[in-house]
Amino acid sequence: xxxxxxxxxxxxxQPRARRAALLRDPRAFVLAKLGIAVKKPNPKPEWCDRMEDxxxxxxxxxxxxLSKIPDPLTERNKHVLVIGGSGSGKTFNYVGPNLLQLYGSxxxxxxxxxxxxxxxxxxxxxxxxxxxxxxxxxxxxTASMHYNPLMYITDSTSIIQIVNLLVENTTGEGKxxxxxxxxxxxxxxQLYMALIGYLHFFYADxxxxxxxxxxxxxxxxxxxxxxxxxxxxxxxxMFGYEGATxxxxxxxxxxxxxxxxxxxxAARRSxxxxxxxxxxxxxxxxxxxxxxxxxxxSCHVRMAPFSVGSVKDFFSEDExxxxxxxxxKTAFFLVMSDTDSTFNFILAMLLYQLFDRNTAIAxxxxxxxxxxxxxxxxxxxxxxxxxxxxEKKIATLRSRWIYLHPIMQNAAQxxxxxxxxxxxxxxxxxxxLYLGRSDFETNKHYSEKLGKYTEVVRNRSESRGRQGxxxxxxxxxxxxxxxxxxxxxxxxxxxxxxxxxxINGARPFKDKKYKTLDHPRYRELAEAGEFVLEDxxxxxxxxxxxxxRLIADEEIAMQERMREFMGGVREVYVVNAA
Length: 578
Hints:
Layout: H1 13-24, H2 26-33, E1 55-57, E2 63-65, E3 80-83, H3 90-99, E4 105-110, H4 114-125, E5 129-134, H5 138-143, H6 156-168, H7 183-202, H8 212-220, H9 233-239, H10 253-261, H11 264-268, H12 273-286, H13 289-302, H14 309-314, E6 330-335, H15 344-364, E7 374-379, H16 390-397, E8 402-408, H17 411-418, H18 422-427, E9 431-434, H19 440-450, E10 452-463, E11 469-480, H20 484-489, E12 498-503, E13 509-512, H21 522-528, H22 533-577
Parallel strand pairs: 3-8, 3-9, 4-6, 4-7, 5-6, 7-8
Antiparallel strand pairs: 1-2, 9-12, 10-11, 12-13
Helix pairs in contact: 1-2, 4-21, 6-7, 7-8, 7-12, 7-13
């Protein structure tokens, strides 16, 4: 009989080391597999109440540290792209938990106004400066804080930017102006730039005159008082009028520029001449009085919303102080309609100027960033309007501590709004959260993003007969980790409370969605109560009137003291003279 020898089986060196690491520290092992290094916690940022607040909540177990991580291997940018269909819990599972974190200033687009109602008083209780722009309907617009885009214009370049943004977002769905636009639109642009430039330069020391309402008034002056009149009142305002006598003459903007700079040659080199160049361009592009009338008619149609009473009041002054959002803790809610896009161009304009102004301020600060993080939770980004150069801004805002969290229902919305630039925007978001319940194409996109695994299929073929036998074979097949069908309608593999978390440089993983109810501060929402916009606005107006009365009383008291002082001086003078 043969001897049976028991040979001790040993694991290869690498798997054995892996197993030892897993048994020694399971958490560190899992993080290493995900590509996330174990790090020592950073000091608590001064703008957070607790260390736990310095985290963007992604899912039940996934967090992304908001403050900068010193280790470049672990550091990620803080832009987060969130995709989820209707009813997937975008507000309940993502927006709400992150608002409760109180980790900096917030800019939140609110499609229905429910988020403001639920969280407005919560922010006020925590000492936040609350700002609200409500564009949902006429009643909300009346209660909204006022916004004047022309107050944030700094030079000729910003005039061009705001006019381009206005035209792009009021052209019509799916019709983004480009190099092939007709000369009517080009002439419109030139006229808008000339009018805004006139207000910006001529009324530089009168901010109350630099409004869209005054721009509409100037637009009315493009039409002569009589039919067929060749020279309009606006022409005279721009170029002046030389009458028979000085009393009959009118000094226009051109003469003002020349006088301001000493000579016409010096004036032509100035920024102020930008206005005259564009106005001349408008006149030459229009070519004939009939074409000019058509262009002006198009301008009136485009500017029609600015003639509504509540809209005129909304643009009459600026109360938003956009350049302060990165300086002090602010909760800025942009309430918009989810059924009517008439005023959505205002949101695109406002966000563009918010990014622009805070970037300029951040560049002057130590470290070239805002004093505290500004997190922009842009729910229903596709309904806001097209923000120019967003693909460039998203790449540069991160270093200024301005972080974008675009939220959409499917991947096609981003492409429909930004076309070929959509992949650039998505690629600049180091973190991507998928909440499910989207269309098949979006599910297919995330199925491909998850990747594949290799499945080994063993086959045995057997032959029967006098000399039967069999043979074994193995086939390796690549299969989707989760197919598009699994993401669509297989609750066993992807349930309604599941989500997918993608972090650049780490392996994607499936997790449970985070519930607002589980947040430690959730109870405070009920204690704070529901926010009522009209009551809040009434209180703000009352405080404003009281402040104005206090200033008036102080001025009156100062004048009385000055009169008493001057009376005493006169008495002393009389006594000394005697």
